[in-house]
C-alpha cells in the first residue's frame, strides 16, 4: 500500500535545525496530485503568515519509496545546515 503524506519543516532563529511546529504535523493525502495541490496552498498560507526569520519547506512524501530523508537533507542545505 502506498501512503502519500504532506509534511512541513520549519527553521527559526530560536531553533534553526529542521523541525515540526504545533499544528503542522504530517497529513495523509488521497493521491500525489492532491498532496501537491495542498502543498501549494500551504506554501502560500505560510508565506503570508510567517515572519522573515521563519523558513519552511512543505513537501510530499510517498512512503514505501524514497523521499523523506532526501527532503530533509535538501532543506538542511537550503538553510545552511545549522545543526
Could you walk me through the main structural features you see in this protein, from its secondary elements to its overall organization?
This protein has helices at 32-49, 68-78, and strands at residues 3-11, 27-29, 55-63. It has a 3-stranded antiparallel β-sheet with strand order 2-1-3, sandwiched between helices. Helix content is 35%, strand content 25%. With 83 residues, it is of the alpha+beta class. It has 2 helices and 3 strands; from the N terminus they run E-E-H-E-H.
How would you concisely characterize the structure shown here?
The protein is an alpha+beta fold and 83 residues long. The chain has helices at residues 32-49, 68-78, and strands spanning 3-11, 27-29, 55-63. Helices cover 35% and strands 25% of the residues.
Name the features.
single chain; alpha+beta; 35% helix; 3-stranded antiparallel beta sheet; 3 strands; 83 residues
Rough shape?
globular
Q: What string gives the helices and strands in order?
A: EEHEH
Q: What fraction, in percent, of the residue positions are helical?
A: 25-40%
Gyration radius, to the nearest Å?
13 Å
Number of helices: 2
Structure summary, number of beta strands: 3
Write the layout of secondary structure elements.
Blueprint: E1 3-11, E2 27-29, H1 32-49, E3 55-63, H2 68-78
Antiparallel strand pairs: 1-2, 1-3
Amino acid at each position: 500500500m502506498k501512503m502519500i503524506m504532506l509534511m512541513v519543516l520549519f527553521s527559526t532563529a530560536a531553533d534553526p535545525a529542521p523541525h515540526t511546529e504545533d499544528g503542522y504535523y504530517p497529513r495523509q493525502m488521497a493521491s500525489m496530485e492532491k498532496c501537491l495541490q495542498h502543498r501549494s496552498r500551504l506554501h502560500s498560507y505560510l508565506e503570508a503568515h510567517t515572519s522573515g526569520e521563519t523558513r519552511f519547506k512543505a513537501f510530499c512524501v510517498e512512503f514505501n519509496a524514497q523521499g523523506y530523508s532526501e527532503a530533509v537533507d535538501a532543506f538542511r542545505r537550503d538553510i545552511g545546515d545549522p545543526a
